[in-house]
Each structure stands twice: as structure tokens, then as C-alpha cells.
Amino acid sequence: MKNKKSKPNYETKVLAIAGLLIAVTVILERFLSIFIPIAGLPALRFGFGGIPAVLMGIIYGPFWGGMVGVVSDLIGVTINTGGAPYFPGFTLSAFLRGFIPGLIFLVIKKNKIKFNFTLLNVFTLLVISFSIVALLFNGKYLVMNNGIIYLAQKPLPLWIMALFIVLVLSFVLISVVIGKKTDNSWSIYSLDKILFAVSLHTILISLILNTLWLSMLYNKGFLIFLPGRVLSALITIPLDTLILYTLLNALKNIISEP
User: CA 9, 65, 125, 128: dihedral to nearest 10 degrees?
Assistant: First the structure.
């Protein structure tokens, strides 16, 4: 009887937390994010509006993470579009933003699968890094003119190539260090697992799906939008990972799961 009575209380608590995170998402995404124009179009939103949905998915599962993403997107677009028209593909992306990390951690919690997340992180970061290589070494790279990012058709300077190689190596080193320094006292929400979830959902949603939606929405080539989004991912992945790790560790004593 005790368990039957506690279930409605638990669901009410989850609904209240979901509502709070939806409100936080709308504020972060619609009012505290920065739009960076690419080819003169509002194609890159820089901010931390995706963190609440990811946090909800990691703690309470993929369904709740996806719901926070969808509801916050639908509410947010009625309040402030940020200059871009509504496109249903971005609502799907908002759902997957909370669903994918939630699904990853659901598998970890239920099946207790022990992957080598260090190797997985190295692989996912290299995918992002070498996608930039393919763009930059093809004679196309980003320039900013009057606050608008464009692809330039010029030879890439050698110092930029060298700097990029150092950046790639540093990202690989970061993921290896994270794997070695991971705190196993609360292993489910360890830094290496969070980095993997953030990296994977960034690649699938931000770099692939959202770039595709932008290409369809504005009738522009996929590669027009991709370089700026890839460079943004190199910044947001470590920042989102550290923020989520800090929040999860701060909340670990009060988190209640099914």
C-alpha cells in the first residue's frame, strides 16, 4: 500500500520539476541566448537552453527529457522566435535533445553496461574535429564581415592549420584525462559518461539534424551552415559537460529516481 500511495506523489514531484525546467529553458533559450548570423541568416543560437532538457532526461528518463524539450520549444516559439520562422523539425530536435541523453543513461542504469567511455569520447570528438578538417582544408573557411559569418574561398593560412591540429590533439587529451580522473564514488553520473552523452547528442542533433532543418528552411546548401555550427560545438560540448556534471553532483543527495 505504501508504494501505491507514493507513486502519485513521485509523479507530482516529477511534473513540478519538469514545469520548473521548462520555464528555465524558455528563459535561457529565448531571452538569454545569442543569435550569430551565418550567410546573413539567424542560423546559430549560442546559449545554454538545452541543458535543462538534458538534465531532466539523465535523471528521470528519456520520456521526461523529451517532454521538457518539446513543451519548452512550443511555448518558446509563441513568445519569441528569435527572428526565425517556426519549423517542426526543430521541435523534433528539441524532443531528441532530452530523449537521447536520457536513453543513454537509462541503458547505463538498467543494464549496468560498462563501456570504455574514454575511447568513445575520443572517437566522437575526433568526428567533430575532422569534420572541420574536411571543410577547412578544402579551401573554405569562416570569415566574419559586419557581424555576419561567411564561407571564404581562399587558401587557408599555415598558422591556422597548425592551430587547428593543436586544438584537435588537446580535445583528445582532454577526453583521456577525464577518463583517468573520473570520480567513481558516484559512477552513474561520472564525467566521462556525461561527456559522451553530450557529444553524441550534439553530433546527431546540432550538427546533423538542425543543420539539415536550416538547409531546408532557408533553401541553402548544407555546408553553408555546417562550419559555424561545428566550431560552436567545440565550445559548447566542454561547457555543457562541466555544467551538467556540476549540477548532477550538487543534486546527487536530493535526486530521487523511480
Answer: -170
Q: How far apart are CA 175 and CA 159, in angstroms?
A: 25
H-only helix segments in 137-221: 158-181, 191-201, 210-218
pTM of the model: 0.78
Give the span between the Cα atoms of 95 and 219, in whole angstroms. 24
Give whole-number Cα distances, 187 to 145, 178, 227, in Å. 46, 13, 35
Domain count, the chain: 1
Q: In the Cβ-directed half-sphere of 140, how many Cα atoms lie within 13 Å? A: 14
Give the CATH number for residue 183: 1.10.1760.20
Look up residue 113 and give its amino acid. I
What is the rounded distance in angstroms from the CA atom of residue 238 to the CA atom of residue 44?
A: 18
Evaluate whether residue 258 is within a structural domain: no
Rounded to an integer, what distance in angstroms lies between the CA atom of residue 118 and that of residue 191? 10
Q: What's the pLDDT tens digit per position in 16-69? A: 999 999 999 999 888 887 777 665 666 677 788 899 999 999 999 999 999 999
Residues 227-255 pLDDT 10s? 778 778 878 888 898 899 889 888 876 66
Whether 91 maps to a domain, the answer reads yes
Q: Is residue 257 part of a domain?
A: no
Query: Is 135 in contact with 223 (CB distance < 8 Å)?
Result: yes
Which domain, by its residues, includes 168? Answer: 2-251
Cα 96 to the center of its chain, rounded Å: 10
Please provide residue 182's backbone torsions phi and psi, each rounded to the nearest 5 degrees.
Answer: -60, 135
Instruction: With CA atoms as reference, report the closest residue to 88 among 234, 222, 241, 209.
Output: 209
